[in-house]
Specification:
By secondary structure, the protein is α/β, with parallel strands linked by helices. Helices cover 38% and strands 18% of the residues. It has seven helices and six strands.
Length: 198
């Protein structure tokens, strides 16, 4: 089985997991990036306030997403890009939480995607002072990117997983999980997301 997966990263407008305002997606085939996609998202109503803290992190403001498609309208594109691939994210609990919460907030079914965490695999692969994405990516030889830009972060995540797979002699995400004592998890629905209405 080849090392095929889709790396994914979300940025959020505020502290609500449902407030996705951008996504980056990177398709990997046999350990190599073959396609990239990223776009802005208009967060669901009630989760659409942009906090100063989040904007300071990623630079996205409310006016940037006014013409963007909402979660419901763009979910099909996200699922089309991902296909049946394992989704890989750095601190996957956060990014899978965004999918769960945004689906709950908009009444969509949560896709039963399989997912794997590059943060966990970095901890099993490298000896570092920090396992934050920029540090782990540097250990994987990927150090020239704009952190908190969703597409760049997804590509950094992909670099970590592909490099870790080589280090461990893994030829698939499932084999990498087995060799590092980790699991490929399955995304499950969340309870309805709490609104952060203004």
């Amino acid at each position: 089985m080849p090392l095929d997966y889709v790396a994914i990263d979300f940025e959020t407008a505020n502290s609500s997991s449902a407030s996705a305002c951008s996504v980056g997606l990177v398709r990997v085939r046999d350990g190599r990036v073959v396609e990239r996609a990223g776009w802005l998202i208009r967060p669901p109503f009630g989760h659409d306030a942009f906090s100063e803290w989040n904007t300071r992190i990623h630079g996205i403001v409310e006016s940037d997403v006014q013409e963007a498609l909402g979660w419901v309208e763009q979910m099909a594109d996200l699922l089309d890009f991902a296909g049946d691939d394992v989704l890989v994210a750095h601190n996957a609990g956060f990014d899978m939480g965004v999918i769960r919460a945004a689906c709950a907030a908009t009444g969509l079914d949560c896709p039963p995607a399989r997912y794997f965490c590059s943060l966990q695999v970095a901890r099993k692969t490298y000896v570092l002072d920090s396992y934050r994405l920029p540090v782990a990516a540097m250990a994987a030889g990927f150090d020239d990117f704009t952190h908190h830009e969703a597409l760049a972060d997804a590509e950094a995540c992909a670099a970590i997983v592909s490099h870790a797979a080589k280090r461990h002699g893994a030829t698939s995400v499932d084999e990498l999980a087995a060799l590092t004592g980790l699991r490929v998890n399955v995304l499950k629905p969340a309870a309805p997301a709490r609104s952060l209405a203004r």
